[in-house]
Design goal:
6-stranded antiparallel beta sheet; 8 strands; 0% helix; 57% strand
């Protein structure tokens, strides 16, 4: 059983396409809305370089994401993604946690 029944909000995600334009700017896919559960609390986490930093928002989704993606929260905030963790259970992939 997944976490679908807990996802009471939605976020907009623009996934990094893996390439850059002629000016060196990342290229993103079209924005898509995905169900999410959002918690606003300070929590220690590690960024992609392994440094301990404070995450102010944790977002649970049943989709993949990377630190290079862009997200928009329901209030219009566009926070930087600090880290992304895939959570597994006994049967494999379960959900993803985004730390911002």
């Amino acid at each position: 059983m997944g976490i679908t029944h807990l996802l009471n909000r939605s976020i907009t995600i623009e996934r990094w396409a893996g390439t850059y334009d002629d000016y060196g700017n990342p290229i993103y896919s079209a924005a898509e809305d995905i169900p999410a559960r959002i918690f606003k609390k300070n929590e220690m986490t590690r960024d992609i370089e392994g440094k301990e930093v404070v995450s102010t928002t944790q977002i649970f989704i049943e989709s993949t994401a990377t630190t290079k993606d862009r997200i928009t929260l329901p209030a219009g905030e566009k926070p930087l993604i600090i880290s992304v963790s895939d959570v597994d259970d006994y049967s494999g992939y379960h959900h993803t946690v985004i730390h911002t």
